[in-house]
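ok so I'm stuck.
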Amino acid sequence: MLNAFEIAGRTAVITGGARGIGRSIGEAFLKAGASIILLDRDHRQGEETLRAMEEMHPGRSRFIALDVTDEADVRRVADDICRENVPDILVNNAGIVSNTPFADLTHAQWQDVVNVNLGGTFLCMQAFGGHMVKARKGSIVNISSICGDVAAVPQSQTAYDASKAGVNQLTRSLAAEWARHGVRVNAVAPGYVATDMTLAGRKNQMCYKTWIRMTPMARFAEPEEIANAVVFLASDAASFITGTILMADGGYTAI
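replied:
not stuck anymore, here's the structure
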């Protein structure tokens, strides 16, 4: 039934929600009638995004500054939010990349990427997911990447690729563990998206031409297209879907 796609009246928490894909996910949830809580370590950008959200859909958005790698802060924020109301949806979107050849990659750079992309997802899933399990409800959508399944070329980003592969397996593992508790866990794995994160690559002719050539649809995704996939997985239309890594990649991983 078409009303299974509706999420009006629900609450979604979105990490990395101040810009890029995270911001588009927030906008998509608002358009679908949900309320949102944006989490991001960039306080200035977060407040700016909040103002824009409030102009479009007054009274249904909040912003909380949060570094997803800070375990104590993640637990505090999760407990504060869940004390008021356990959110229906959690989207783990916060992520960074380091385009450094592996031989030159420092341990500190490796840790930075893995701590945000995989560690932050782990901390938020544990902090918010624990409350969801107790409430016996919830849909968690992790933002992974095609790079969790295939190696990125021609750029070097080993830490990013490894972290996203970890997100994929974390998604599957928790989906199996929490299914009996009424909590679904899925992931969306975008291909190349027209955001700030890919801007440098889009300006590099070798990267740009390779990415377009390897994508059968021969274009970049718009952030809104990734957001739509997230809203679907969060909705009751996906009520029997858990442990799935949904590729939103223009056919990149099909060839």
